[in-house]
Amino acid sequence: MHAYMIIAHNQFELLERLIAALDDERNDIYIHIDKKVKDFDFEHFKSIAKRSSVYFTQRIKITWGDFSQVKAEMLLLEAAVKKENPNKPYTYYHLISGVDLPIKSNDEIHSFFDENNGKEFIHFTHNETADASVNRIKYYHLFRKKRNLFYKILAQAALRVQQMLHINRLKNKNISVQKGCNWFSITGAFAHFIADNMVEYEELFRLSYCADEVFIQTALLNSPFKDNLYMPNCNNNHLACARLIDWERGNPYIFKKEDYPLIKASPAMFARKFDLRTDSQIIDMILNRQ
Fold it and tell me: What is the pTM of this model?
């Protein structure tokens, strides 16, 4: 069994198609819908899957750069671990967004993770620790819930004062910090380890900045699972997390129909991102192939 954990805040027609693509008796689907979204039809989305169980988590308002991004991941992990059937435990937990797609069939995805069972599919931007990554949790990042000029000025002022005072939340903690893609595929054992230590993670990341890109990497490096990476020393190769993501052509790039040969040839299991308004044909091509 696999647990798919989806973070979504828009493009709900695409989310419908994503759920349908993942619908398989070997998959359960957990979804977090940003609390800022109004009039979301939960019953409709539950009814899309005929073979998978679909669950919705507690909802929070997500703000870019704020701890709320990490909190949404935590809510999904906690929900999936709690709902897991002990007689059919999840071998893998996949975090994807509502604008991602599987680019392999469910059979191919399950075969791939069966062949690599026990490996953690986590991406690292750099092989070594960077100060900028450490600074995301080293300081108390205040006033991050509102993204307007006034609060940005307050946040920068608070940060500068801490730098002058040599504040270091990580002092004496002996914690390794690294950065990477926030989308991952991790083993059930590691997911349970995170759930068991969630109180400590909440304390560590609660007043962080853009910690969604250091959360899973830092959790792994300071765990018994640190030597289980699928691609050690990946040095920014997104195949480390079994994803096809193009940061050279976009932020990230939105795939189009002319990219189909690239997607078809990729050994990745998932790709991001897609947009029905930009190009719906590529979505049809990928899903119809399956």
Answer: 0.94
